[in-house]
From TrEMBL:
<keyword id="KW-0686">Riboflavin biosynthesis</keyword>
<keyword id="KW-0862">Zinc</keyword>
<feature type="domain" description="GTP cyclohydrolase II">
    <location>
        <begin position="36"/>
        <end position="185"/>
    </location>
</feature>
<keyword id="KW-0378">Hydrolase</keyword>
<keyword id="KW-0342">GTP-binding</keyword>
<comment type="pathway">
    <text>Cofactor biosynthesis; riboflavin biosynthesis; 5-amino-6-(D-ribitylamino)uracil from GTP: step 1/4.</text>
</comment>
<dbReference type="GO" id="GO:0003935">
    <property type="term" value="F:GTP cyclohydrolase II activity"/>
</dbReference>
<keyword id="KW-0479">Metal-binding</keyword>
<keyword id="KW-0547">Nucleotide-binding</keyword>
<protein>
    <recommendedName>
        <fullName>GTP cyclohydrolase II</fullName>
        <ecNumber>3.5.4.25</ecNumber>
    </recommendedName>
</protein>
<dbReference type="InterPro" id="IPR000926">
    <property type="entry name" value="RibA"/>
</dbReference>
<dbReference type="Pfam" id="PF00925">
    <property type="entry name" value="GTP_cyclohydro2"/>
</dbReference>
<dbReference type="InterPro" id="IPR036144">
    <property type="entry name" value="RibA-like_sf"/>
</dbReference>
<dbReference type="InterPro" id="IPR032677">
    <property type="entry name" value="GTP_cyclohydro_II"/>
</dbReference>
Amino acid sequence: MASERPGHFPDERGGATVRRTVVVPLDIGIGRPVEATVTSFDALSHSGEHVLIGMGTPGDIPLVRVHSECLTGDVFGSLRCDCGPQLREAQRRIHERGGALVYLRQEGRGIGLYNKIDTYALQDTGMDTFEANTALGFAPDARDYAVAAQMLQAAGIHRIDLLTNNSDKSEQLRRNGIEVVHEIPTETHANPHNIRYLAAKSTVTRHGLTLDAGRDVKEALS
């Protein structure tokens, strides 16, 4: 889909609607500012203040990353997860190819920040990230990507290549009217502090991760 300027998508009314779009220069780690558009929405099915960030010059099939908020990883650089590195990787790749970052306010896989901190305490006793969620009475993954589909449709984006290792995102987007042409994997951002977390994502929810760099998954799970 052709765009009028870098990061710009047309406003298509119907259902959820574009509330406002503004231009914001971003530092995405490439040595110079990048012009991006930040779009807010009305009438979304989820009450969070979600935004769509457009970057680059999108073609017919823009590259899209649907990223759920992780305050500890995205902002503070926590090494207990891979969220921050995935976000920064997505920004660079979307800028290079053209597309959009859909940023969803679904902290802690949908359970909120304080509850996520509680799961950290449970993980410190030996539970994996999904067991900790269920121990607190939540679903292993409570995220709902229907709102991401609404945002994309309101912005006139209907066919995408999705940057993800999580097939559940693709399935939910497809069920809600978005054509996912290709799933494009992100890099595996492993470190000694998140290897058990990544191993759980790989084995429990079948995330497409390659755990190597001298780290043994069986050892991480033992």
